[in-house]
């Protein structure tokens, strides 16, 4: 590749900002041009992300270069739309937004957004100028449901998911205090998690008459990274048929791997992969899915979308060594 | 109490044996008379349970005193029945079996067993000579379902539960290797966990026509102690009505506490308590239950049963300081 | 015991306040009379300490009963002295202060304080009206050094210690954020920890000419409860002689147990015990000590002191079930 | 690079074997030619390393290709020498041995080994045919001591280090049982760790008259990956002078980063970096070092040595995304 893609990051001091920096610094086809953070402007990146000391001397900036090719918005929910209204980039600059501001069809100025789930919308992503990057739980749940939705036979879903503390961001909170969270499990947003909206939208894209409930109980886990979801669904298909449906659906998608077996979460931590494990008992199929909430659930997914938008190899810069242990 | 109850423990070197020792050593009305362990005979208890050094000089024995009042069997599944066949205690000795050997109505010799869930069978337990102590997941799930079953209106259940590594015992296994289990989540025995049998039996005791499925997905958690279960059930009752049903059911039961709110698992770790948290959204009630798998899920439950059998205060020796943090 | 000791707690919403509540609620000889907390006044104790729900309906108060027998001050460092100045209890009310305000001989009004380390000052504690309860690291380190100091031959000390997150209190901080602290180790206050002052004072009490350095490197651990310290000291004594020195020193002290072997921290978590493990190689003895930082390191130690002050069994209310696993 | 280096791995089913596979699969200049494992021959790599499913279809083999350029020996201590005796590769095949078999000058056949610590022996490594890869604790401790040794003024060292469970390998052991190790700290091999031999050898290489003791207390930590060491040393140098000594020593070494401050371990987990944090108080300098025990402590270090031996960029294939959180 002759010329590198010039990329900027807005909101670079948070967790997804940090992960996006880490990925882009090592991406073979990208030049990280600016990392915007109003509160950290002038400080080296490693002042906020200590692990980067020795890797880069780049500093945070509070000015925005408009000559970049792509901007990653790593802002809080509600802040991305406001930011783009106040800082209208030229139309030639592509936007990848990691917040939930544009996942349900919202627009800003002339910008319309493609929902950036490559396993669902890869062709559209390749043509897109703006991407609404999926939510973390939304990714893990959808990748467990979409193949069945494509058969037109997805019924009511009962899903329980557990997430690492990084899903709650870096703000200090009672529920991310080490003393409280260590060795603890708790439920939150029972049946009301905001990601259900984007999940239902994607399901309806494949199965327009889907009208059943998706009952989702999210749990807080006592680990920092990862999401694990088990979804229970009634189906008339045999396990072999279910496996074929999933394998066909994910054929050619490099990051989503289907198992005819259980899976464990740590296999994907620090990678952009999604594991899908399938089991069946009686008339119930159980789909286990596992992702790293900050990578396939956020920043890795965003870089995957960038790769597609710019015609790069889909896996460029994303062949990451898993933590493994 | 003038005379102390003389208690023996069989299988005292394992986790539930250790917990039973810890409880009985501090129990105001019990004299721990023998701790049987063939493989450890002659060694001090603290050779297997290092935390007991300084607390007791008692040693394991391979002989069985028949003059005790009660024997706790802390053996592996399948071993209790065999043990009682080979070592028939006098009829006057009461048996509390922590295995699953007698939970479904099985007998040995003249001994018949009462299922030792005080919240369900307290009066029968008070009269019982032999107790089949409930399973850990079985306890957590039943305490979440029984009040609804008593209304006669329990329907299909979708439950996900997570358990600490102590639930898998002290045998070295791939799934209890620290390197694998730390920061990991995995599913096992999906929809086929053996505790479903005793759960269905208890539900049928209250709601004889119950014919719906109890879909249970167990997960391995990355902590040592505790169980957390979220069960999703359709109901026509309002949240207020559900809360009343649960509060009425557990009225007078000292260890089971009903919340009209979420609960977190660590509140009960190292105690004999069960927390029941209730939420409702649409037509679904979600019941969260939390116990310590080794106490209310095993040894604490067993001592609670002993207290009832011998007419002691139900909470004697079981007012335990929680780990809290 | 005919009449129960009436006890009050000031600063009952924090970690050491919570632990003191948990201990006193179950103490056979104590009536918990008030729990003072300005910010929580009127709320039930379980609003701050969720695990107490179901155990007590007591509420926090902002008024101070002067008719109690003993008050535990569970306040931040610097606040105890101020509190006693503003709220002078009658001389008949004994004070046990868990802060560091009175550990170096400080006084307030007529009150002078005995340093509440029973293994060092048991007779004085029995006569004391006011106790300065030792610090957590100070307890773990001193119990590893004092027997050698008593021989008059303690030399330079190199100690490294690790503490759980509860040692940092319940205030939200970057270093107690779960995401940062999980699976992490870090050093802080290298060679300058404030507990060195009280340690040196106790050493000098036994070995007045001690002039060597105590080099202490504290680490933050990725667990909630517990302290583990390894101290390396040159000595001319053989291992057998060292062991005898320690065993003699702790003879008759119920909570401190000497091993001629290594020890592991979790054996003492949720107990009031201190383990002392001794090893020797060449001319160096290595003393490993382990305590629960909130119990033998704070609230349990305070209750032990209360027991001594009021002529109770030293272990009353402190025979706690360890977490064990 | 026109032709890729052909690399083989012997002992590919263990932890260091797995990490070496992960690194070489993504290395731009290497073709992973064979992965030898007698017990797993014929099975896919992902049968032993589940995270590799979807990444490679390579299988384990029990035959050894002699046409490779380099072989990594990931065998247990004592097995490497035996393996090379029984399987003499042609002299043209370079060997990188991760065991301790050749770290003290041992030879096998005509093969002599260079101690593979690039910060000490980079020029010799570039010329070497055979590398003895350093131990994990040895790496962390040496990188904290060598700059002072080079000044000729290193004195007695008091070091405490903590290691993750992966340091103990994948064999099931009591001390790697999750139930025991979670939330626990313990000491082992106090003052007698086998890595002291190679540490003293390297120190003597820079300071031939070094005769003082290196007192090292290793601890087992409750995490899977990482090593953190704090070393206390008397020195006449000021902190500024010490920092200059360390910065000069590591000038041009890409993986070792010197801080004039504390460091925390998790910054380096899943990377090949070593952090060196320096503090001073009185006449004592405290050197904190942190590495990932499986990377800079084993497989990453081995690949770094391979890069040097074959004239590649020293960091090729080793710019790894840290776990960060």
TrEMBL record, chains A, B, C, D:
Give the residue range of the signal peptide.
none
| Alphabetized CDD domains for the sequence | AGPR_1_C (cd23934), AGPR_1_N (cd17895)
Keyword line: Amino-acid biosynthesis, Arginine biosynthesis, Cytoplasm, NADP, Oxidoreductase
What's a GO cellular component annotated to this UniProt protein?
cytoplasm
| UniProt subcellular location | Cytoplasm
Classification lineage: Bacteria, Pseudomonadati, Bacteroidota, Cytophagia, Cytophagales
Question: Which HAMAP family does the entry mention?
Answer: ArgC_type1
Specify the species. Dawidia cretensis
Record EC number: 1.2.1.38
Q: Catalytic residues?
A: 136
A Gene Ontology biological process in which this protein takes part is: L-arginine biosynthetic process
Listed PROSITE patterns: ARGC
Pathway the protein acts in: Amino-acid biosynthesis; L-arginine biosynthesis; N(2)-acetyl-L-ornithine from L-glutamate: step 3/4
Name the Gene Ontology molecular function terms of this record.
N-acetyl-gamma-glutamyl-phosphate reductase activity; NAD binding; NADP+ binding
Q: What is this protein called?
A: N-acetyl-gamma-glutamyl-phosphate reductase
Question: In UniProt terms, what function does this protein have?
Answer: Catalyzes the NADPH-dependent reduction of N-acetyl-5-glutamyl phosphate to yield N-acetyl-L-glutamate 5-semialdehyde.
Keyword Amino-acid biosynthesis in annotation: yes
């Amino acid at each position: 590749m002759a010329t590198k893609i010039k990329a900027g990051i807005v909101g670079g001091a948070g967790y997804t900002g940090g992960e996006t920096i880490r990925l882009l610094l090592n991406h073979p086809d990208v030049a990280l041009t600016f990392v915007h953070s109003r509160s950290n402007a002038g400080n080296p990146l490693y002042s906020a992300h200590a692990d980067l000391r020795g890797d880069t001397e780049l500093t945070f900036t509070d000015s925005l270069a408009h000559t970049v090719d792509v901007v990653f918005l790593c802002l809080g929910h509600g802040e991305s739309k406001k930011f783009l209204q106040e800082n209208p980039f030229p139309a030639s600059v592509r936007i990848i937004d990691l917040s939930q501001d544009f996942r349900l069809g919202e627009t800003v100025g002339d910008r319309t957004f493609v929902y950036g789930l490559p396993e669902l919308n890869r062709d559209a992503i390749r043509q897109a100028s703006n991407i609404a990057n999926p939510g973390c739980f939304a990714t893990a749940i959808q990748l467990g449901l979409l193949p069945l939705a494509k058969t037109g036979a997805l019924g009511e879903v009962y899903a329980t998911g557990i997430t690492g503390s990084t899903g709650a961001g870096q703000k200090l909170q009672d529920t991310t205090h080490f003393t409280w969270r260590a060795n603890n499990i708790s439920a939150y947003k029972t049946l009301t998690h905001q990601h259900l909206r984007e999940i239902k939208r994607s399901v309806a894209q494949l199965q327009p008459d889907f009208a059943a409930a998706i009952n989702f109980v999210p749990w807080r886990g006592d680990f920092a990274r990862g999401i694990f979801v088990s979804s229970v669904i009634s189906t008339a298909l045999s396990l072999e048929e279910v496996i074929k449906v999933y394998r066909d659906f994910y054929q050619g998608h490099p990051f989503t791997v289907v198992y005819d077996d259980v899976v464990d979460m740590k296999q994907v931590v620090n990678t952009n992969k999604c594991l899908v494990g399938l089991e069946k008992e009686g008339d119930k199929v159980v789909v286990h899915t596992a992702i790293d909430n900050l990578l396939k659930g956020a920043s890795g997914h965003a870089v995957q979308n960038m790769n597609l938008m710019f015609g790069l190899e889909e896996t460029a810069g994303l062949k990451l060594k898993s933590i493994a242990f």
